[in-house]
Amino acid sequence: MTAELPKQPDCSKLEQLLVNQKITSQKEIKTAKSAAFLFNKRASTPVCLILAEENQLKKSDITKLLTSKPVYKEAVELIKNDKSLDQNKTSSYISKNNNILKLLNELTNNNIISLNKRNLLLNKVLNLKTAAKTLASMGLLFEDSLEAAFRKQKKKISFCEILYEQHLVTLSELNHIFIKLDNSLKLGGILSNLGLIDEKTLSNTLKEQSKSGLSFGSILVNQKKISIQQLYFALSIQYNIPFRQLSNFTYSDSQKIELRGIVDRKIAEQNFIIPILLTYNNLMIGVFNPSHVADINDIISKYSDLKISCVLITHNKFEQLYALLYGEILNTTNDLIAGHSHTYTPGKKTVISQPDSQYRLINDLFEKYLKLIKDKNLNPDRKVFHDFIRENYFKICSEYDCSNVSFWFEFPNNNLKIMASPVLSKNQTD
Question: Residue 147 has what pLDDT?
């Protein structure tokens, strides 16, 4: 009754790039992969077996559990809903049994299911919340022990997460590597290359996204395919913006006054951004949806003397900080689940401050450009577009002695044009 560890994904190209680019060594990758293997083994262990390993349950307790009516009823539903099984063949055995362990053994002995399938089903049964609650109702376990066991079950982790947590690779280095893997830098591709989702999950999620209109990441989190932390780790790589949990963070009274003076409630609400910290002339702004990074233009143009950096925070933390800072409740759910469609608002500007690290921001600009071009026979090159933005950024910065440049689209004489202008400080405009 041991949990079967899922097959490790083939990340050889990712590993090769990490080594060839001299970002990390093969030895460090091997160590990280071993740590990920052990972590994932624990993550795939049913909660009842975790309790057994910790000597909180006896073998006889698990046998008693598997003969209980609530667990049998739930297990039968599990079998009936399994589309890979021949329901005509399983139904006759179900009607003759009232013991899930005996039922699974009969199905295996009569070649209705394989031994591997039998073990997988048994592990699912031992991981059901019904099984855990039955243990408590039978007086075999305390509720707090169950909660502790469920907390120990986590989503599988990638070796890249371990390398990042151990400070063996930086976010910018991961962003650089994933651009080389796929310069479209799509979220699904990143999660797939990290080994957190497989091709089937990727395909099914894309189909669900087209039907429901929900964001790709929200679907995966809702279906418990990945954790919210893993979603934000992938988004961090995609947008090259660090994720911060800010577990114990709060504002002082003086900070509230100062930050509200820079970002008033209306701007924060409209753009879903929140000021977090001001140190000298460095302002840290939090966003829960990285597509809103492009929406800090009002802040940059109004306070161009400030050096603004962005971090990703969860939508729950965003709502909490918004309530603390502005004294009001703001529901972010609708914005969180909505997919980012690269829609274009006439005159809306994208401010670039670091073209070499803001690849995804420029990529979003490119996606808008693709939607706006009228000649559908044109096939603009993504790299040429990126180089164009980068070259014009440095040219304008050199000419006007600035560090921020706005890019936007206009339609003079019904022709699409890419426009650019420097974002000047107050001293430069006075």
Answer: 62
Give the torsion sign (CA, 185, 186, 187, 193).
negative
214, 335 contact by CB (below 8 A): no
Residue 338, beta-bridge partner list: 214
Q: Are 290 and 239 in contact (CB under 8 A)?
A: yes
* 379/401 Cα distance (integer angstroms): 34
What average pLDDT does range 272-294 have in this prediction?
A: 87
Contact (Cβ atoms closer than 8 angstroms) between residue 51 and residue 141: yes
Three-state SS for 287? Answer: strand
d(CA 348, CA 407): 9
- Rounded distance, CA 275 to CA 295, Å? 13
- Residue that is written with structure tokens 């073990």 in the block: 119
Beta carbons of 358 and 240 less than 8 angstroms apart: yes
pTM higher than the cut 0.85: no
Q: Sign of the CA dihedral 248, 254, 258, 264? A: positive
DSSP 129-185: HHHHHHHHHTTSS-HHHHHHHHHH------HHHHHHHTTSS-HHHHHHHHHHH-TT-
Q: Which CATH architecture has domain 241-339?
A: 2-Layer Sandwich (3.30)
Chain segment 235-274, per-residue pLDDT in tens: 999 988 899 988 889 899 999 999 999 898 988 888 889 9
pLDDT (0 to 100) of residue 31: 93
Do 47 and 153 form a contact (C-beta atoms < 8 A)? yes
Distance CA 161, CA 196 (A): 11
Residue 414 CA: distances (Å) to CA of 373, 374, 418, 421: 11, 10, 13, 21
Tens digits of per-residue pLDDT, 87-100?
A: 888 887 887 777 77
Spans of all domains in the chain: 14-41+156-239, 46-152, 241-339, 341-430
What are the residue ranges of helices labelled H in 344-423?
Answer: 359-372, 382-400
Residue type at 138?
M
- What is the C-alpha to C-alpha distance for residues 140 and 389, in angstroms, rounded to an integer? 65
Report how far Cα 391 is from the mean position of its chain's Cα atoms.
32
Q: Is pLDDT above 80 for 379?
A: no
In the chain, the percentage of residues whose pLDDT exceeds 90 is 24
Does residue 69 come out as left (phi exceeding 0), alpha (psi in the -120 to 50 range) or beta? Answer: alpha
Give every CB contact of residue 70 below 8 A, 6+ residues apart in sequence.
Answer: 130, 133, 134
> CA 317, 320, 326, 332 torsion: positive or negative?
positive
